[in-house]
Request: fold
Amino acid sequence: MTAALVFLGAVIGAPLRYLTDRTVQARHDSVFPWGTLSVNVIGCLILGGLTGAALPSAVFSLLGTGFCGALTTYSTFGYETLRLVEQRSYFWAAMNVVISVIAGLGAALLGYTAVSAFLG
Amino acid sequence: MGTKIAEPAWDPIDPDVDLHVPAQRRELARSHGGVLVVIAAGGGLGALARYGLGRAWPTPAGGFPWATFTVNVVGCLLIGVLMVLISEVGVAHPLARPFLGVGVLGGFTTFSTYADEVRDLLRPGSAPLAFGYLAGTVLGALLAVLAGVRLARAATGR
Reply:
């Protein structure tokens, strides 16, 4: 049952990452991977909020483990950073790591703190 | 026009989708949304594998999240191998990148759980562990991508 909820959440989350990435790229022509950064930060904000809401485990499996887990990605982030290094865009490679980590952690903290404060 | 080069000189950065590559720009319309179906199926399978590993290897409260760390590092190693095979060796089916890269590996690895675990460790008593996990995953993931790319290039004589 839980596994089915994880699967279902990811079935929505993974294509949504692809579509968001396309949408961001279509509006923002740049070497910097803004699309991936966007889905990762949004996913961190949502997951932080879900954790702060202390949801029943079934709901968390669907929305947290499944949806947010598949909406966000570490493999794409890692590969993009290496590609930027290989193309000698060292500055953007470093910025991709620094901005992704700080913005992702910041978003998770914000989501968690805001939702716990509202519900607490 | 008339050239044998199928793809432009642009080297894709984003393995999920790079709109500078004409074939990837067209894939959504050309497949009538079929690309979304394989991404969804791959994402579901990848997430299930991550869930299974997390169940088998639970993180004790205040402990190092080894399951997520392993998932992210292994996923990065595999995307390195996969993208060399797809973009440099170029023998893959058009749906291989959407299914395996965007779907399976994208669904398997997770940035949100990583960030939320760091947030959870960021409290008195486990703050050094939070920063160790934060930096360790970045380092492990980047080295894994590099290893995957190098391995695949070596194996295919590139």
Summary: Chain B touches chain A through 63 residues (CB under 8 Å). The CA atoms of residues 61 and 121 of chain B lie 9 Å apart. Confidence is low (pLDDT under 50) at residues 1-9 of chain B.
